């Protein structure tokens, strides 16, 4: 679904990603792991057109998207849930969702409707008239995911969905993402929570020094303590 080849990107004069190759296969969950500062978020930002592709290529379902503006990339079917969640705090849950539904690309029968996201996240249904700023961290994360789904994405990108959440909420988010996986949604996930990431993912890319230093299955990495110690400091 998503192919990144020889990607170089960074901030101004500072290059952070040096020749990254990464594939997120259709219908699979791909997790990017790595220590703080390895370049995981930077990679996602480049995919979303928020940072320049200085060298290399990014394509979605065979179509080049490297260098396109963020809204064009979103229109081609990538929805992004950033680390910061980016909920509109002064809008209600209903308004946050309605806005996403309005800007979603017009396509064939949309897979995701307001009713369907509320079925997935009933908690949001109870909070429809609350402001974004009145939500707990877990509710904000649910809203951010629900909003992304309303874009009817071909690829859902999640940056640290468990960050700052209590263990019980982390489990709930995990179960929801498992439902999406069972439904066949292609996902690319950056995650510090090793157990969360390896139990969801089909494939893992380990990032270090701005590139992919290892790729393989969650089973392989779970069994390899040396690899974990070297690249995750676990
Ligand atoms: P983390 O979990 O800490 O976010 P990460 O793997 O996502 O880790 P990135 O946020 O991609 O790491 O950061 C990679 C490198 O880019 C780091 O050295 C960081 O200091 C640098 N960096 C990140 N954001 C900026 C920025 N806005 N300007 C300059 N350098 C940045």
Automatic annotation (TrEMBL):
<keyword id="KW-0067">ATP-binding</keyword>
<dbReference type="GO" id="GO:0015658">
    <property type="term" value="F:branched-chain amino acid transmembrane transporter activity"/>
</dbReference>
<keyword id="KW-0813">Transport</keyword>
<protein>
    <submittedName>
        <fullName>ABC transporter ATP-binding protein</fullName>
    </submittedName>
</protein>
<dbReference type="Pfam" id="PF00005">
    <property type="entry name" value="ABC_tran"/>
</dbReference>
<dbReference type="InterPro" id="IPR027417">
    <property type="entry name" value="P-loop_NTPase"/>
</dbReference>
<dbReference type="GO" id="GO:0015807">
    <property type="term" value="P:L-amino acid transport"/>
</dbReference>
<comment type="similarity">
    <text>Belongs to the ABC transporter superfamily.</text>
</comment>
<dbReference type="GO" id="GO:0016887">
    <property type="term" value="F:ATP hydrolysis activity"/>
</dbReference>
<feature type="domain" description="ABC transporter">
    <location>
        <begin position="2"/>
        <end position="234"/>
    </location>
</feature>
<dbReference type="InterPro" id="IPR003439">
    <property type="entry name" value="ABC_transporter-like_ATP-bd"/>
</dbReference>
<dbReference type="GO" id="GO:0005524">
    <property type="term" value="F:ATP binding"/>
</dbReference>
<dbReference type="InterPro" id="IPR052156">
    <property type="entry name" value="BCAA_Transport_ATP-bd_LivF"/>
</dbReference>
<dbReference type="InterPro" id="IPR003593">
    <property type="entry name" value="AAA+_ATPase"/>
</dbReference>
<dbReference type="InterPro" id="IPR017871">
    <property type="entry name" value="ABC_transporter-like_CS"/>
</dbReference>
<keyword id="KW-0029">Amino-acid transport</keyword>
<keyword id="KW-0547">Nucleotide-binding</keyword>
């Amino acid at each position: 679904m998503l192919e990144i080849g020889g990607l170089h990107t960074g901030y101004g004069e500072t290059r952070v990603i040096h020749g990254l190759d990464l594939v997120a296969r259709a219908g699979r969950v791909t997790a990017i792991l790595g220590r703080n500062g390895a370049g995981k978020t930077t990679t996602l930002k480049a995919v979303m057109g928020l940072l320049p592709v200085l060298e290399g290529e990014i394509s979605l379902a065979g179509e080049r998207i490297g260098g396109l503006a963020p809204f064009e990339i979103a229109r081609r079917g990538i929805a992004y849930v950033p680390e910061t969640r980016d909920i509109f705090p002064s809008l209600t849950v209903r308004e946050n969702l309605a806005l996403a539904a309005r800007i979603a690309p017009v396509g064939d029968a949309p897979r995701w409707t307001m009713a369907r996201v509320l079925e997935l996240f009933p908690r949001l249904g109870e909070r429809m008239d609350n402001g974004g700023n009145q939500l707990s961290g877990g509710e904000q994360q649910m809203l951010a995911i629900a909003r992304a789904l309303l874009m009817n994405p071909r690829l859902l990108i999640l940056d640290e969905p468990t960050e700052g959440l209590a263990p019980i909420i982390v489990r709930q988010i995990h179960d929801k993402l498992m439902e999406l996986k069972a439904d066949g949604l292609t996902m690319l996930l950056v995650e510090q929570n090793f157990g969360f990431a390896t139990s969801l993912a089909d494939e893992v890319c380990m990032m270090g020094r701005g590139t992919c230093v290892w790729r393989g299955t969650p089973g392989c990495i779970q069994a390899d303590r040396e690899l974990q110690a070297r690249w995750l400091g676990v």
